[in-house]
Amino acid sequence: MTSEYGKNPPLSYNEYLKVPELLKLQRTLSDPVSHDELLFIIIHQTYELWFNQILHEIDATIGWLDEGRPFRVNHSLRAVVSIEKIMVSQIHILESMAQIGFLEFRDKLNPASGFQSMQFRELEFVSGQKDEKILEFFKFDAFAYSRLKERFEKPSLGDAFWAMLSREGFSVGSREEKVSSVVEILTHPEKHPNLFVMQDLLIEHDENISLWRYHHVLMVERMLGMKRGTGGSEGVGYLMSTLTKRFFPELWEARTHLKAEPPQ
Ligand code: HEM
Q1: Which of 129, 165, 174, 252 makes the best surface tag, with the fewest CB within 10 Å?
Q2: pLDDT-derived band of residue 3, with 50, 70 and 90 as boundaries?
Q3: Residue 240 CB–ligand 1 contact under 6 Å
Q4: Rounded CA separation 213/209 (Å)
Q5: Atom of ligand 1 nearest to the CA of 102
Q6: 118 neighbors 90 (Cβ within 8 angstroms)
Q7: Dihedral sign from CA coordinates of 85, 86, 91, 93
């Protein structure tokens, strides 16, 4: 078959999406092959693809914030939170593995762990959760380290949001001023419609990643109980300690200070 433009053969779905190459990327380690290892690999690879797309949207969002284009900011943030909702529920597919089936191949993974997911750490850093100890952890992986170091040093999503608020005339020099600015936006949504939607999408991004942490730790406990992680941490105990992480603490704090106003 010849395409309209004389291409022979015309572009196909499989060629465009590199499906043959994609299907070669799931390499199981167990021998004889443990039935559930394919699911385990596919879930992790799917997460990495979604992380890639989220990073793409957040990088664009920072650019739109710098250019003062709230419609585009909110449009990209909407995509981010929609993907994250899928990411939260997707973790439970792993609970379809029988625990005993998982244990068949788990030892083969040692010492690899989700802890080493470069893109998850990029997502934390770009969202403002920067941790020098985590950056140093990647010192021996030149590719990951250079990406993480760049994100560690560059302004985060939160930095770009506060800079935009400052250009809009809000005082955001201190934590208290940031909280008061958000209280003003929450109190008068019709006066600040774009900023109201923006802070709502940002807190939803924060909430979604926290929800992912909760769902992940519960899934881990259901699969492993209190066994140590393949990455060397104590496992569930360590994961529980990450549940209080917040990207935008001022957005959460503003809710505490919000007071009722007479209806307008
Ligand atoms: C049966 C499946 C899974 C088990 C048993 C499991 C277990 C664990 C454990 C025990 C840790 C703590 C670090 C360690 O010592 O290894 C951890 C961390 C982590 N896992 Fe999983 N995990 C599973 C699936 C996933 C999936 C599908 C993802 C998706 C990317 C993921 C991403 C992560 C991330 C990002 C961390 C680091 C969290 C942090 O430090 O805040 N895990 N996992």
Answers
A1: 174
A2: low
A3: no
A4: 6
A5: 1
A6: no
A7: positive
Long-range CB contacts for residues 35-39, cutoff 8 Å, separation at least 24: 35/101, 36/97, 36/98, 36/101, 36/102, 36/104, 36/105, 37/105, 39/93, 39/94, 39/96, 39/97
User: Cβ(50) to ligand 1 under 6 A?
Assistant: no
What number does the ligand 1 atom closest to the CA of 224 have? 5
| Ligand 1 centroid to residue 92 C-alpha, Å | 13
- Residue 230 Cβ contacting ligand 1 at under 6 Å: yes
pLDDT per position as a tens digit, 24-82: 999 999 999 999 999 999 999 999 999 999 999 999 999 999 999 999 999 999 999 99
Domains defined for the chain, CATH in brackets: 32-105+114-161+171-257 (1.20.58.480)
Q: Is 145 strand, coil or helix? A: helix
Q: Is the CB of 237 under 6 A from ligand 1?
A: no
Classify residue 229 by its DSSP letter.
P
Assessment of whether the complete model's pTM goes beyond 0.85: yes
For a pLDDT cut of 90, what percent of the chain falls above it? 95
Ligand 1 closest atom vs CA 239: 12
